[in-house]
Amino acid sequence: MGANVDTRADLPPRKRLRTDDTTTAQKGIQEPRLFVPFRALGLITNSVPFVLQTRSHKGATDGPRVHLVTCLGKAWAMWEGGKMGLLFVGPDAPMPIASLAMDGNAVWASSGPYVIKYLRGKEVERYSNPFETNVTHILMFGKQLLALTDDGSRMLIWDTESGDLESTIQFEQGFTAIMIHHPATYLNKVLVASSQGSMQLWNIRTQTLIHTFPAASLLTSPSKITSTAITAIARSPAIDVVGIGFSSGEISVYDIRADERLMRMAMQGGGIRALSFRSDGQPILATASSTGHIALWDLNSGGRLLHLVRGAHDGAVTALEWVPGQPVLISSGEDNSVKQWLFDSPTDAPRLLKYRSGHHAPPHLIRYYGEDGKQILTASRDRSLRCTSVVRDSRSFELSQGSLAKKAANLSIPIASLKFPPVSALSYSTTRSKDWDDILTAHTDEAVARTWTMKDKRVGKHVFTVTGEKKKAAAIGSVKAVCVTACGNFGIAASSTGVINMYNMQSGILRRTFDIGPCPANVPSRFRPTANGKKKEERCITGLASDALDRVLVASTLDGTINFFDFHTAALEHTLVLPSAAVSITLQRDSGLLAVICDDLVVRIIDIETRRVVRELGGFRGRVLDLTFSPDSRWLITTSMDSIIRTFDIPTGRLIDLFRTSSVATSVTFSPTNDFLATSHVDSVGVYLWANRAQYSEVSFQSIVEEDVVDVSLPSMQGVAEDEALEALSVLTVQDQPTDVFVTPPQLDGDLVTFTLLPRARWQTLLNLEVIQQRNKPKEPPKQPEKAPFFLPTLPGVEPRFAIEQKKAEERKRKESKRLQRAAASTESVFFKKLSEAHASESSDYEDFFNYAKALSPAAMDLELRSLVTLEALQMFLAALTWRLRSHRDFEAVQTFMAVFLRMHGDVLASNAELQRDLETLAEAQRKESERLLELLASSLGTLNFVRDMI
Questions:
Q1: Which residues of 726-860 form beta strands (DSSP E)?
Q2: 872: helix, coil or strand?
Q3: Between these two residues, 221 and 900, which has the higher pLDDT value?
Q4: First-to-last CA distance in the chain?
Q5: What is this structure's pTM?
Q6: What's the pLDDT band for 720 if we cut at 50, 70, 90?
Q7: Distant-in-sequence, close-in-space partners of 793: CB < 8 Å, separation ≥ 6
Q8: Could you tell me if 655 and 610 are in contact, meaning their C-beta atoms sit under 8 angstroms apart?
């Protein structure tokens, strides 16, 4: 039949259980010091078609439950179809996922040469392609798993129960398989479609080719020059009938038993990407094209077009599925969205029921909104402004730009062409967000700035212009910078021609204009703008900022100047000239620090009170794209074209952390609650969160160099289950414990004398303990309180009296046996044990012993010293004092212990000649240390007097 069947009997079973290689690899990778990957936001789906599964439960009254599994790159997500809520996210696969399938509770995904099985979001099994080529398409076929290789030459068949590779079917030359489809009621038979436009029917049990459907019978007029690939196959409610979509836009409804085409339709403007038959009794076929349109065809009328939903998605539609038994159509597209369409009647046009979407172009500007750190404003090249929720994905939304869908339908143009240009600058203030518009944006190549309201989730009422002098020849520049004051009452917009206008956010009335003036004379000539003829020079404004009290307005220019205006009088008070052009500025209002991104790869920090440059941060190997302050103004986080995210310590001006990501981060923003750093990247539509380690553990902020950069992969979108929460927190702990430079070492210098740093009263109490005990001794012993019974009986009489029985309790004194007396005598205290161990080990500093002795209270230390009754114990304690004196540590503690010890045991020490040598050694060490201390004191006093006389 023109095909070769290879059962691969000599191959071993290709089943491989999940291993901990990824975990081991992650442990081996050096992690960043300050920020660790946490999770990704805003990812819904990509170009891989989703998988739909419906489940009916006995006694359920709300209909079947619908589950969707979408691809997120290397991971997958499961959504609940009722409210489009995220159930959980699978772990990252080794390579990007190419195909998905579901079988009961299991999710199957093809990733590179592997096919991985997941249960409850955890990998439980993994199959490997013996040919070591990537697997592109998979299909669950009962207890068997079918898969196609990326070159389209083979179909692999696994037994899911045993995990063995049963057989391999190799296709003939000129037939490149791209997808597998199982027709209803066909036992052990599947359809295999090719990129040449032909189709084959195979029996997978016998590995035989039953029939070939050539492209000539499937297409009306196949091209002889280029082949028309089959791009979609769908099963119809009618037996033996399938729908076939082609890359040319043609659709065929085909009877595979009779080998006959029943009807033909075509969509203009793109190839067919998906199709699906309605299953609730209505003969309707839904098809989707690569241009984002969805067409509905009436099959009873010979394939008549019922409706065409133009621009259903902003990109190619990747999948279409009807919910079984319901008039609901689910579609997904490359625009990172999944939508549900409801049909109120068989002939009515569908309406959008619910959807979940994100950016379909990488965001280039992100900013945390509010003070709770729960929302992030994101702007993208897809001309949208979205609010992304950090807490829950279902709370994310796009700020409305008006009824664009109706306008686009009337004009028959895409919705994206009616949207505002991409946002180039953004500013907000939440102070008056409940009263009027609170967000102000500037757009690319537009001469106006627009207001937005977060409360109503839409564009605001006002448009702020930046027109200058009202002359016919006056140039109108585009808005380059915007600023909303801290009070929320004023919005300021600046243009590329040097015009700065301030408007009222509530009424939209122009309140004040700030004149930037001519370029200062000390600006370098290479940055000075050129004047054309009689027109005055136009100075481009690159940044605006106002302080927390609305006293100063700061404006930066492209010619390298920082201009300070009086906010109330609009007078230019001061101009600071920088050695390079100022690209953008960011003000931390709480501290008054202004960070300026300069064109010479240096970030300069200016104090707006003194109006001077206080820090210059360099070391960048590419243009600085964005920066953000930490809420406490301690750190400055930057991103640059070299794909490195750096963290600087502002008080010291040192680099304390840096890590390299797989793609360039275009924008960064720090949470106002100091817990997360958010980044957006040039090749991803998501927003990525990095956890701040300093919030969970102690981090050493040592200065590092550029060579210490660490390569870190981007965070994944995997949801952490409750049983994995503790494991996730372990990632936030610091693996290494570097030396803290701010901790005082035990000994500063070998020639110095170190004290214990304990209170002086501790040693005074130990020295005078006998006097204190004698003074605090009670005059008479305490009396035992009179015991009364629980129920007090009363005596007869007029006056109430209690009958208290006086019981004479005789205490029996238990005599201790001789065995107990010997055991008590032989018991050693912890103090004596540590002294004996230190003496036996011949330690040079008795560190453990003296640490324990310093922790004892004065009364306990007095008792321990009195317990030293043997000559051996006295000799060991004398040796301990000698060695501690020679180590130059704990000087006042040793003096106290020596004084109390000699007072207690002086007569015993004097009467025993064997202790004389130890006493002489201790006296010599005491003399040397006393002389050393007096010499150090005299030197310090002399230096102090000299300095005092010099001043």
A1: 794-795, 801-802
A2: helix
A3: 900
A4: 107
A5: 0.74
A6: very low
A7: 802, 803
A8: no
